[in-house]
Design brief:
The structure holds two protein chains of two kinds. By secondary structure, chain A is α+β, with helices and mostly antiparallel strands. Chain A has two domains: 97 residues, ACT domain (Alpha-Beta Plaits, 2-Layer Sandwich), CATH 3.30.70; 68 residues, ACT-like. Chain A, domain 2 (Alpha-Beta Plaits). In chain A, strand 6 and strand 7 form a beta hairpin. Chain A is 29% helix and 35% strand. Chain B is 37% helix and 17% strand. Chain B is built from 23 helices and 20 strands. In chain B, the strands form four sheets. Chain B has a six-stranded parallel beta sheet with strand order 3-2-4-5-7-6. A six-stranded parallel beta sheet of chain B has the order 11-10-9-12-13-14, with helices on both faces. In chain B, helix 12 packs across helix 15. Classes of the chains: A alpha+beta, B alpha/beta. At the A-B interface, helix 1, helix 2 and helix 6 of A face strand 6 and strand 14 of B.
């Protein structure tokens, strides 16, 4: 069954790596719903957060193919129950419209929004949350003329993760320790991943 | 001869220091550093073609030409296929030079071929000056992005100081773990830039790269248990055995466990053809028994092979009854196509001895007999008539039979792609490993001739026979020029059926004989060879076959023998596309 999976990829910081990662998906005609690159908890290690809609089997194979790339240290995949995730959205609306028609205080309180900029001609609100929350605010603002809207990629924290610090130490050894194992859950498909 | 460069040219050193590991700091150009890296990595042969953006490297090569043998090919695709042939027979990393733009794009087919067939290559391409990148400069092409999907790793160097460490990484990545092609793109400014060279240190570890997975003993124990319990175990082996240099370990394993073993096209030769447990070839045109009995075995042990669709046929009807043990160095191969019961990650050079130790000594006489019975059926239906035809026209099989008699199975057999390839792999006798060079995964027509040239440089003491069809030969025949100039002793055997035979066979069987553009005409190949000062002859009569092959093999230097074979002969057995291996057709 296809569902939303969040893939977290720890990588070296290397020009061109994003292309190497992106083509793993496009080659299989898989649409990337969201892609974020950022630093990680470990200095010098990059973290990609990629969201796709696929079956677990496909996602698992993709992660193995990703890990095969020379500059990728590790790729994890999680369903939405296994992560804490957020997106950020910006909304630009006409200040006149808003001031006349909207109880801004209520807007801020009910939608967890924040006014980032208030100018005579326009106001920019920001909200952080999951898709439904962000979409709710669009719906609310649309009647008042949404001038611009943009939503960021998903960023996600893995609930069960102890971070990459210890793993990295193992990667730095030329003969990694016994507990660094590849594909540990391959033949236990029903077992939910934890780090 | 060098063109104007950014830095003033210094007087060339009269003699370049050969020792690469010198700790004395000296000033070198980026180009010299590339060649020093080659020497330190033990490179002896480079296949290449010069051009504007790689001229500084070629200028430096002028001073290294007594240490590095450069073969000037006639097309970059020929260069990279030659490097592949070299790597396949020698077991070392093949090295290629090409210039930017068209030079680099001409490598793409070879890169894709080397990628899918796990062939270690280091390709160095020239690139325009870093300051011109992205300006659509003359012969500028975004080679890094073009080659990303077909390289194990690629990297663009814009600063000469990076060259020693990047090349060390390149050789390490190309040759370690599951091997593959690496491309290093060096901008012209980096080639001419002088820097303080502090010697060359081989790369032995990259933290984000795990060439070999940890061997997990508990799975070996479980695998051995499954094998010991098995009534009808069956081994499938691929090129992993050869790439791991584990031929002996593999033979010890099958001999102790008594398990019949069949090979993929790239695994051919890892075990001698006449080994009693070698039951033949897998796949679409493989032997009858190995295909049929895949769906009857109870434990399937796959070693260094990747369950290609040409091997498995229809996946949902493939070995469903069997428990599967998969030994592979590449963790991504486990469970990719076939669900594994027990995965054994690791280099089979390490895992096979552990497994051999843990399995009981056994024979599976009755089970092995099933393979023999199936083989007999195949002989009666196909092989006998293929090898001993009564038709007026010759068959490809009988050519191979006579060739086997004459070489005794010691020759390196290089093939192109198509019917002749299937026939050659089915019937060629291989006494030893690294004897079969063919384009397996990509199926690259035009691979044969240049790969044979490289194969000869990789195994100079062995007889190299390039078996090529009339179609494939016309794709890269310009490499006759390379043979002419550098004298590689390659025996070229063209099996000419005046058709693009494999496509024609499919059109006959599946498209109601609607022969759509498979009728290909050829030039006078012998006259063509003569134009390149290569001797040869063409035969159509069976009575001339043995003598002609003998003449070819005994000829001093390269020789081209064209043999006309039956126009509409088919390769059988055959597992039609989309069918299960048990639906293999004998006719």
């Amino acid at each position: 069954m296809k569902q939303e999976y969040t893939i977290t990829v720890y990588t070296e910081n290397q020009i061109g790596l994003i292309n190497r990662i992106a083509i793993m998906f496009s080659r299989r005609k898989i649409n990337i719903e969201s892609l974020n690159t950022s630093p990680s908890e470990v200095h010098g290690i990059h973290r990609f957060t990629i969201v796709i809609n696929e079956t677990e089997e496909v996602v698992r194979k993709l992660c193995r193919q990703l890990e095969k790339q020379v500059e990728i240290l590790k790729a994890y995949y999680n369903n939405n129950d296994e992560i804490i995730w957020q997106e950020l959205a910006l909304y630009k609306v006409s200040t006149d419209q808003i001031a006349e028609n909207v109880k801004v205080e209520r807007l801020l309180r009910e939608y967890g929004a924040r006014a980032v900029v208030i100018r005579k001609d326009y106001t920019v609100f920001e909200t952080t949350g999951q898709r439904q929350e962000i979409d709710k605010l669009i719906k609310f603002l649309e009647p008042y003329g949404l001038i611009e809207f943009v939503r960021s990629a998903r960023v996600a924290i893995i609930k069960d993760s102890a971070g990459f610090h210890e793993k990295l130490k193992d990667f730095e050894l030329s003969a990694p320790s016994e507990d660094v194992i590849e594909n540990e859950y391959l033949s236990q498909a029903d077992k939910v991943f934890s780090m | 001869m060098s063109n104007a460069t950014a830095t003033p040219k210094t007087t060339p050193k009269s003699k370049t220091e050969p020792a690469a590991k010198t700790s004395v700091v000296r000033e070198l150009s980026g180009s010299q550093a590339v060649l020093e890296a080659f020497l330190a990595e033990g490179v002896d042969t480079i296949f290449g073609y010069p051009g504007g953006a790689i001229m500084p490297i070629y200028d430096a090569l002028y001073d290294y030409r007594d240490k590095l043998n450069h073969i000037l090919v006639r097309h970059e695709q020929g260069g990279i296929h030659a490097a592949q042939g070299y790597a396949r027979t020698s077991g070392r990393t093949g090295v290629v030079f090409a210039t930017s733009g068209p030079g680099a794009t001409n490598l793409v087919t070879g890169l894709a071929d080397a990628m899918i067939d796990s062939t270690p290559l280091v390709c160095v391409t020239g690139q325009v000056f870093a300051s011109l990148l992205g300006t659509d400069a003359f012969q500028e092409t975004d080679v890094i992005n073009i080659t990303t999907p077909v390289t194990k790793w690629n990297y663009q160097v814009t600063d000469a100081t990076e060259i020693p460490s990047v090349l060390a990484k390149a050789f390490y990545i190309a040759g370690s773990g599951r091997p593959g092609p690496v491309l290093i793109d060096i901008t012209k400014n980096a080639q001419v830039q002088k820097f303080n060279y502090e010697g060359y240190t081989k790369c032995e570890h990259i933290r984000s790269y795990r060439p070999k997975p940890i061997v997990r003993k508990e799975y070996i124990t479980e695998a051995a248990h499954l094998i010991n319990e098995a009534q009808r175990p069956f081994v499938l082996f691929g090129q992993g055995v050869i790439l791991g240099g584990a031929e002996k370990e593999f033979q010890a394993f099958i001999e102790k466990s008594g398990i019949p073993a069949a090979w993929t096209i790239l695994g051919a030769g890892a075990v001698p053809t006449d080994h009693p447990l070698n039951v033949g070839m897998l796949g679409m045109h493989g032997n009858y028994g190995p295909n049929l009995l895949t769906n009857e075995c109870d434990v399937l042990i796959a070693i260094g092979m990747r369950f290609d669709d040409r091997v498995t046929g229809r996946l949902d009807k493939y070995a469903k009854q069997a428990k599967v043990i998969h030994l592979d160095i590449d963790p991504a191969e486990i469970d990719k196509n076939i669900k594994t019961t027990i995965p054994v990650w690791g280099d089979c050079k390490e895992t096979l001895p552990l497994l051999t130790e843990a399995v009981e000594k056994k024979t599976h006489t009755a089970w092995l007999q099933r393979f023999k019975d199936a083989y007999k059926k195949e002989v009666d239906a196909v092989i006998h008539d293929e090898l001993n035809p009564t038709t007026a026209e010759m068959t490809m099989g009988e050519v191979l039979k006579v060739l086997n008699e004459l070489t005794g199975g010691d020759a390196v057999i290089v093939t192109d792609v198509g019917q002749h390839q299937m026939v050659a792999c089915r019937y060629a006798k291989f006494n030893g490993t690294r004897s079969n060079v063919t384009s397996g995964g990509l199926g690259t027509m035009g691979f044969g001739l240049p790969a044979a040239i490289g194969a000869k440089y990789g195994a100079p003491d062995r007889t190299v026979v390039a078996i090529i069809g009339d179609g494939g030969f016309q794709m890269t025949l310009q490499e006759l020029g390379t043979i002419m100039q550098f004298g590689a002793d390659v025996k070229i055997l063209i099996l000419n059926n005046r058709f693009l035979g494999m496509v024609r066979q499919w059109q006959e069987l599946f498209n109601d004989k609607r022969y759509s553009f498979v009728d290909i005409t050829s030039p006078d190949f012998v006259a063509l060879a003569k134009a390149y000062y290569i001797d040869g002859q063409s035969i159509t009569d069976r009575k001339d076959l043995k003598k002609a092959l003998q003449t070819m093999l005994e000829h001093k230097g390269s020789y081209l023998l064209e043999i006309f074979t039956g126009k509409e002969n088919n390769v059988f057995p055959m597992v039609p596309q989309g069918c299960s291996v048990s639906e293999i057709r004998l006719k």
